[in-house]
Amino acid sequence: MRRKSLILFVFVLVTAVLFSACTPDLSLEPAAPEPVETDEAAAPEADQPVVVEEGETIEVEAGTGLSGQIQIAGSTTVQPLSEKLALAFMALNPELVIEVQGGGSSVGVTAAGEGTVNIGQVSREIKGSEFEAFPDLMVHTIAYDGIAIVTHPDLQLPSITLEEAKRIFGGEITNYAEIGGPDGEIIVVSREEGSGTRAAFDELVLESSEPELEMTETALLQQSNGQVRTTVATTPNAIGYLSFGFLDESVNLVEINGFLPTVDNVLAGNYPVFRPLNLTTNGDPDALSQAFLDFILSPDGQEIVSEDYIPAVGEDAGYVPPTDLSGQIQVAGSTTVQPLTEKLALAFMAYNPALVIEVQGGGSSVGVTAAGEGTVNIGQVSREIKGSEFDAFPDLMVHTIAYDGIAIVTHPDLQLPSITLEEAKRIFGGEITNYAEIGGPDAEIIVVSREEGSGTRAAFDELVLESSEPELEMTETALLQQSNGQVRTTVATTPNAIGYLSFGFLDESVNLVEINGYLPTVENVLAGNYPVFRPLNLTTLGEPDELSQAFLDFILSSFGQVIVAEDYIRAR
User: Fold this and answer.
1) What pTM, to 2 d.p., does this model score?
2) Domain 326-572 - what CATH class?
């Protein structure tokens, strides 16, 4: 098998360009772009240079005053990304002209190696024979890209394995009925030889296991990703493969091993078919090319990359989860953090089958005490650590792994208008006792709350009951519950009940209440519109032990933060 350095290099990923200065960011699914296509078989001269259209505005920083020309040619997969980056960089430098052309990955290597262009574009690993031909070739990875298997829009297939994909494109499986699909002849659509997408697909799919296979001789060969997409979309029973950047609604996506081809599934280690997008130079780049490469790998450049692809630079650049750990990690505390820790633990144990991570609840106060006394390796705390707790355990270390909103919820038959934070405070503080006082129905308010010692309760007290002077305490008539789950059940089954829940516990059994006109959603937290949110922390007594540190590194990596983003707000 020749997957070699793709697996080791790919998760050089991602999150630095997604962060906010004030609140953490959440990964969003990229929209399908409309790339500019160039026939890879054509000579580079046939393509038109990139220019900034008159009147076009691009939000960039102040210009740096560079002038001159940069010539780029090669992969049509990398081409639309290079064009977007070139537009942004030329907007910074109006006297600079960057011409971006296609031609294919092999053209990119040769043109850069022979010095006929400043920069070559290559959407695959560089071959040994190419390094032999051009020993001074330098490779600059600017992004990562998945390759999706796609079908005609009328063709729905079940999830397939990587081995089945290999045998389909290798010509050994010729009817969809053989993989649980309809009875129909398989029409394979592929890129031509010399294409970077084809080379990566061959390596990652056809050569993924022994015996290696070659692309079926009956494949309909196309000169670009765009042509593959058009052919698959218009040919009944067709199946092909596309760069993530060329996906749109004209084709159907095929799951591999139960996972759709998405950026999040690549980051989580679930989707196996991805490759680097490279720029190449003949030795050290010239001054203008180096300035362009520096821009591409800067936060501004990688933000452009992240619109359609996976960034090559991030805080955890080069991180790869370990796979040989063994032993045990004990975790206890907040029931809000518990389900998130359990999901993260399952993912980390999948990489390390000999490792056991036991995750228990008990509440945030239990998490602090258990970690502080050393009875567990890691404590879970869904609030800020109190000064008294730091006094009791001065060596306590706090590791924020996510942020979580707290939503005010009501019985499903109770619809309330938007309320202010002050009104929320007075409801839970017992000063407002009838919903008619806030424009709701004429009914007594039944407050449901977490018990004292709960992290959710402590955060709610601080963010709502203590949000302004005079501070209030939770009403003595509140129905106290031992977990978010119990709060949800009590509110859902008690007429006129109102309570509060971690975002991670929201479902259709309760109604959401707007605060200041905004629903409790991740998007509204990130936009600064929804005020009730708090950190989700893991705590250790001093520096974590080796196994705990490895687990924390995983949680704060792109791998872990993708899992966080499913229900919570990323810490990174």
Assistant:
1) 0.47
2) alpha beta
**Class of the 4-143+275-311 domain?**
alpha beta
Query: Which CATH code, of 3.40.50.300, 3.40.190.10, 3.40.630.30, 3.40.1410.10, is assigned to 146-274?
Result: 3.40.190.10
Instruction: Give the closest residue to 530 by CA, choosing from 423, 418, 405.
Output: 405
Residue 463 token pair: 């963010």
Q: Are 171 and 218 in contact (CB under 8 A)?
A: yes
Q: Where are the domains of the chain?
A: 4-143+275-311, 146-274, 326-572
Terminus-to-terminus CA distance in the chain, angstroms? 34
CB 377 within 8 A of CB 540: yes
Give which of 65, 236, 75 is closest to 142, Cα–Cα.
75
* Residue 421, both tokens: 């934070």
Residues ≥6 apart with Cβ < 8 Å to 546: none
Go through 282-315 and write b for each residue having 16 or more CB atoms within 10 A of its CB, e for each that does not.
beebeebbebbbebbbeebbbebbbebbbbbbbb
DSSP string, 38-56: --TTS-GGGSPPP-PPTT-
List of residues 6+ apart from 218 with CB closer than 8 A: 171, 188
d(CA 377, CA 329): 6
**146-274 and 326-572 agree in CATH topology:** yes
10-residue stretch averages of pLDDT, the chain, 572 residues long? 30 32 32 36 34 36 74 91 95 95 92 97 87 93 90 96 96 97 97 85 88 95 92 97 90 93 76 88 95 90 80 62 94 92 94 95 93 97 89 94 92 96 97 97 97 86 90 96 94 98 91 95 80 91 96 88 78 72
